[in-house]
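Hi C.,

You asked whether I'd gotten around to modeling the 411-residue construct. I have! Everything is below, sequence then structure, no commentary in between.
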Amino acid sequence: MLGGSFSYHSCQRRPPLKPLPSEIWSEIFSFALSETLATNPSVDRPRLCMSLVMVCKSFKDVALPLLYANVKFRTVSCLDSFTACLYAADQKWDSIRRIPYSTPGRWVQILDLSELADTLDSRQVYTVDMLLTKLFPLVPFMTKLCLTPAVPLSRRALSSLTNRDGNSSLKALGGICYDVSFHSPVATGDDPFVRLLQRGFDSDFDSFPDSLLQEPASMVKLYLPKLHSLTILSMPTSSLLVSLLNTGLPRLRALSITPYDDIPYPASCTSRFLDVHGQSLCTLSFFTPKSWPTQLHPSPSTLFHTCPNLRHLSLEYPLPELALPDSTSTALPLQIISIPRPDMGFWRVLERLLPCLPALRAVRIRDVRWLGPGLSNRAQETGVQGELQDWRRRLGRRGIRVLDADWQDTP
């Protein structure tokens, strides 16, 4: 031919590429979602997933599980609609199918109700508890559950969570409120919350008031190797505390607790808890919730014996007469100590401890703020402000800062 040559083979079309398996598409979409959310956290994840669902049927089959994998609720009406959707789908599911669990319930991996408290009315607490009781059996592959302390789970809801199929898949449990009325004087295994923790979750706790005076005759040992932070407020003892005393907590680093050192064991387990688990703690905060009438209990004076690795210690009234470690040459790693207000009695204790605290960098007065610069020098040298100035002068010579409630060292 004129102007060049012609080849028949060059006109043949290439064979079509084999379609990617849905598992690979799922990995691609998951990576794209995670990267997008990492670079721009304000992106609406459900809207992003829906944009993939609406592309074509093939994308819909892959993106729908991602849409249901991570579910966050901000209103009770959303929780109600979601539960009704999963329940209706489960009722239509038949035993002929190869997969025993219905969709979309089996796609759910993360349930997050932590922001529900912002819109929750006190009259809706029972409704939420009822909906969760109905919802838990429908999500057999849930790996993470984030609740809110504003909704304490009833025995019925806890039993629904504990006895559902696939409960061993739950690995992280946060924001749950423990009701000490579940305490059993016979056996800790009768406590529905203790039975739930027997599965071995990585959990954070919020606990609320009551008091009990008898140690159960039978105790359950839990498995919580990843538990790193724990909050136990206004709870001298309970089935949960008794079980935790007999459980290894190798990663426990932060503890917030209400002290009851004047109440002997087993009526109070708090001091015994520090004896057992204090070695691993880096942060220890004593706190008594303010309610009328507020009853303050003393803290242990042997904290540096039971918790020798503390970096941050926050004390509550009445301030304890902290005892020195057994060896006077021991250098403690404590870096920050917090007290409610400056106290001359505690100053003498602190002054005696300073030789053993070479790493101490700050003393925080958490209930007081520095006065603004607009006030006169006389006003800043009187009352609590004058005590703060005095503490700052004394500790400043040792290179230790005095911080106020806002973590500021200057007005």
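If it helps when you're writing up: Residues 202-218 have pLDDT under 50 and may be disordered.

Thanks,
B.
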